[in-house]
Amino acid sequence: MEESIPEFKIFKLNLKVVGFVDLKDDALSIIRGGYSVRPLRTNKDENILIVNWSATCSKIIDTFYEENVKSGGKHYGRPVYTKIIVFLDRDSIINPWDIQSSIEKINRIESQIINKVSLLYKEAHIINRVKSTLIRYQWTSQTLKFQFIIVSLPVFFISWYMGTTVSDVSYNLRRREIGLLLTKGFSRGQIFRMFLGEALLIGILGSVFGIFLSIILVFFMIRETFLNFGLVIGFDTVLMTIIFSVALSLLMIFQPARRASKLDIVDALQEYRYVEDIKPYKKKWPWIAFILGTYKIVIWLLGVNLIVLFMENPPVHNIFLMIILGIWMFFDSTILNSIGPFLFFWGVTKIFIRGSFAFQKAVEKITKPISDLSVLSTKNINRNPARTAAVAFLIAMIIGYAFQVIGTYASTQDYILRQIKFYVGSDISLETRTIENISSIIDKIENLSEALSVTIEYIFHGITADEERSLRLVAVNPSEWPRVAYTEDNLFKGEDMVSAFQKLKNDNFTIILDIGIAEDLKLGLGDNICLKILTATGYRVFSLKIVGFFGTKIQSSPYFPGINRYYLWSYVPEAFYKCIQRETESYGKVLVKICGDSDGKEVVKKIRDLQLPGVIAIYSVDEILEEWREGTLGSSTSTPILLSFVGSEEIQRIGVVIAVLAASIGTFIVTLIN
Questions:
Q1: Distance CA 625, CA 627 (A)
Q2: Total domain count for the chain?
Q3: Please, are residues 158 and 401 in contact by the beta-carbon 8 Å criterion?
């Protein structure tokens, strides 16, 4: 037996408007019950009515229930959803240095609220905004820790190599001391444990110095005048620092101390001997390191992405070989990306400086005409190639790591700047809910002395003929848009940007098509695409000629079809949009290019002071870039995007400083005690 569906009834009420309220971003977020970064495109419309409960709201609810009783319960639904907004004392609850305990406190408060509310309402649901924000913050914190570990790996390697090299040399200097201890009855195990005890003491002292240094760094990084260091440097942090420092010290000392404790008494009583005389030189590992490092550097110079290359054209189809290839790609993209240059430098110093007398003779012949000092330096290398190789490797690591991290830092800054410009669209952009007041908005902005040029983007949507793919269409003035908008020439394919927009200007029924759609439909330059655009009376069909492509080439694997497939948008002439402007839904985005010497933040402030009607968001490249540099990106409603590089700039700076400091001290000590 089919259950009859309850009927709906619409209640029409006339409400007298007694005023208007213009809510700012914070107040609007509070009324909506949340706080988040506003997206670039706002698709949600809301009308907020502030009414008197007794005079208006209660009457509406009473009317609903009266009609529901009269109809015998045929009408259903809830006329009002009640939200109770609760503000917490965040200063007493949240500890930014112990997020987990803060979440536990909020969970207890949430349980208390649920208990109290459930006594009055059986169906109560809590949306905990603070908790979700803390969880995201915790995830971001873990991500930054992982980034710091990746940056620190070469630093640890430099420290280990420096410590091992210094230990080798220092134990060689203490040969007679070791011999005297052996003659006095000390066992080799006692001598070995004595060296480990020294390393333990050095590790503890180093950890104390590291904790002190970290406190200073935190003070300068956070830039707070009053900072509770008891919260920043917790017991777990101190414990982990000591354990790691001691472990690294023991690891550096272990092998040299073991060799020193095994010295024969007669050999130990001799004076200092060169390392190469007592430590055998093995060529296998230097050659492996040299080959792997050279391979990685060549791959970088050629600009080859093995993952993309093998995903597009797999060289093998055997499952066993594919597994081996996958393991190699993982090794190449993770481990070799970090240590490839160091393997190369280590292999070069071991093979050519320490192990190849032919190379040393060749260097001597080349440098002989220059000066006697160069010849003397070459002979010094011949006498002590092991020490020279160690010093050369440390210096190479300093230079190599500095180039690597500084290059990453520079490329990150460049990427962030380009991404911000790309999403803002120009120096400044204004997003409007509708297109009704576009002309007046543009007129007011053009009156600003800092505004160099202004243009408008009309954004609407269409679908392909098979109704399987949605297209985001951006209608622009082909003459104005290239001068105002930020774009990159390499995003335009088939035709260069100037030629493509010239063709848009000459023919209203043309399109610069998203390259993803073009590849899916196998469309080429000069072909026509059939588009359906939803209007008030149904779909209208248009045939547009393709005059160019926009976007990046889609990488797809035959084993995983559709992976990494994404779409951007397509450009059409403004004249084409005018044909259907009144028939389809759209919104506008005003792009503003300012004078070169103008401050984008000040211009945005002036635009906000204009109180332009219909504008729901204003974005500025300078404003967002400043928020990113200050580490506040993501907490402001003026930001259209969330970037994943917050904090990594400072991490990379610290990595460079520590690496250069450690390697420089190591080089100085090795040179001094030799």
A1: 5
A2: 2
A3: yes
The residue among 34 and 345 whose pLDDT is bigger is 345
Lowest mean pLDDT among 132-136, 347-351, 522-526, 569-573: 347-351
Give the domain range for residue 98: 25-129
Has residue 492 been placed in a domain? yes
DSSP state of 490: G
Give, in degrees to the nearest 5, the angle at Cα 370 between 366 and 373: 100
Whole-angstrom CA distances from 18 to 15, 52, 141 are 9, 12, 48
DSSP letter at 596 equals T
Question: What is the spatial distance between Cα 37 and Cα 633, in angstroms, rounded to a whole number?
Answer: 10
In a domain, 104, yes or no: yes
C-alpha 361/C-alpha 384 separation (Å) is 14
Q: What is the pLDDT of residues 1-16, one digit of tens each?
A: 344 444 555 667 777 7
Single-letter amino acid, residue 356:
S
* SS3 letters across 403-455: HHHHHHHHHHHHHHHHHHHHHHCCCEEEEECCCCCHHHHHHHHHCCCCEEEEE
Q: Looking at residue 563, what DSSP letter applies?
A: T
pLDDT at 272: 57
pLDDT at 572 over 80: yes
Helix axis angle, 235-261 to 175-183, nearest 10°: 80
Q: Is residue 517 part of a domain?
A: yes
What gap in Å lies between CA 202 and CA 249, rounded to an integer?
Answer: 7
| Among 588, 635, 636, residue whose Cα is nearest residue 612 | 588
Two tokens, residue 478: 């082909």
Find the helix packing angle between 129-173 and 99-118, rounded to 10°.
160
Helix, strand, coil tally for the chain in percent (to 5): 60, 10, 30
**Lookup: tokens for 33:** 């019950």
**pLDDT score of 509:** 93
Q: What is the pLDDT of residues 195-230, one digit of tens each?
A: 888 888 888 888 888 778 777 776 666 555 445 555
Q: What's the pLDDT at 5? A: 44
Crossing angle of helices 175-183/129-173, nearest 10°? 80
Q: What is the DSSP letter of 4?
A: P
For residue 506, the one-letter residue type is: N
639 versus 572: the higher-pLDDT residue is: 572
Give the DSSP H or E segment for 115.
Answer: helix 99-118
Which domain-ending residue is among 102, 129, 156? 129
Fill in the DSSP letter of residue 644. Answer: T
Please report the beta strands in 24-68, taking only residues with DSSP state E, as ranges in sequence order. none
Does the global pTM surpass 0.85? Answer: no
pLDDT score of 270 more than 60 = yes
Tell me if 410 is assigned to some domain. no
Using CA atoms, how far apart are residues 234 and 216, in angstroms rounded to an integer? 15
